[in-house]
Design brief:
- The protein is of the alpha/beta class and 277 residues long.
- The protein has a single domain, classed as Rossmann fold (3-Layer(aba) Sandwich).
- Helices cover 23% and strands 27% of the residues.
- The chain has helices spanning 7-18, 47-58, 76-79, 128-139, 158-164, 254-257, 260-273, and strands spanning 3-4, 23-26, 30-31, 35-40, 64-68, 84-88, 92-93, 123-124, 143-147, 166-170, 175-181, 195-199, 203-206, 213-218, 231-240, 243-248.
- The strands form four sheets. Strands 2-5-4-6-9-16-15-14-11-12 form a ten-stranded mixed β-sheet, sandwiched between helices. A two-stranded antiparallel ribbon has the order 1-3.
- Helix 2 (47-58) links the parallel strand 4 and strand 5.
Length: 277
């Protein structure tokens, strides 16, 4: 039986969760018991736009969504409270900090006291215990939605990569490209039309059977990346143990995440991962 959630209970839970690095994003009018943990944000991807974008994806889905930027929340103790894990972030942290909002704005070059600041140096955050926790989580019957640059985390762990299905290669700058549905019979892609986005076209190495592929991206102007051509794999979905895994690559901008056909696909992805379709 569904139980109504009062405004007071939501606010009190949110206040408590904020103290442990988790913030309630979407709370349904009635508690279905389905909860999603979303690990978002990194140096190159501000968590604010991601949360705003994903709130639109989760709206009307009847799930409670909790957001965190704290990588340590990927753990057995935290995951046990959820039925789905979403990750839109890369595999890097910057313990000594960095200057400038991102790697492409060299604000530090003209500082008079440049020598007073340490060089920005990335470290990986994922531990093998965390990768194992994710594997157990999905194998037990839960869902994992890997979005955009999350394929970069797979470079840190063979275990994580085995669950996620592939690994990051690289991407050109923002530019328009077309995303095509290559398997229209899958529950996620049924009724979804091809669409255009202006985004980072991520190139990934895919490790699983090609029968699980859902999406392909192509720069229709013929622009390539390195020696990899104009086309790239852009999405897949498969069962893993008793659980399910989906990866889709667009997502560097809110405009891409809110492309109408892509937004519909994301909503269907959540439903498939939660075994509703």
């Amino acid at each position: 039986m569904s139980v109504s959630i009062s405004r007071r209970s939501v606010l009190s839970w949110t206040a408590a969760a904020a103290g442990i690095g988790i913030v309630r994003g979407i709370a349904p009018a009635q508690d279905s018991g389905r909860r999603v943990l979303a690990l978002i944000g990194d140096r190159y991807h501000n968590s604010d736009y991601i949360q705003v974008a994903l709130n639109k994806m989760f709206a009307g889905q009847g799930v409670a969504v909790d957001y965190t930027v704290d990588c340590t929340k990927l753990s057995r103790n935290v995951l046990k409270n959820y039925q789905m894990f979403l990750c839109l972030r890369d595999g890097m942290i910057w313990p000594n900090g960095y200057l400038g909002p991102d790697a492409y704005a060299a604000y530090e070059q003209n500082l008079e006291n440049r020598e007073d600041f340490p060089e920005a140096k990335a470290e990986t955050w994922l531990t093998e215990d965390q990768a194992g926790a994710l594997k157990e989580f999905v194998t037990a019957g839960n869902g994992f939605y890997s979005l955009h640059n999350n394929s970069h985390v797979s470079l840190s762990s063979k275990t994580y990569r085995d669950v996620m299905g592939g690994a990051y290669i690289g991407h050109p700058p923002l530019r328009p490209f077309k995303v095509r549905v290559v398997n229209s019979s899958h529950p996620i892609t049924q009724g979804i039309k091809d669409f255009m986005v202006n985004d980072e076209q991520h190139y990934v190495q895919y490790d699983k059977d090609r029968k699980y592929l859902l999406l392909e991206a192509e720069n229709v102007d013929g622009l390539t990346y390195q020696n990899l051509g104009a086309k790239s794999i852009a999405g897949w979905a498969y069962d893993y143990g008793r659980g399910r895994v989906v990866f889709t690559s667009p997502g560097h901008t809110i405009h891409a995440l809110w492309a109408p056909e892509y937004l519909k696909l994301q909503k269907r992805t959540v439903q498939w991962l939660l075994k509703e379709i």
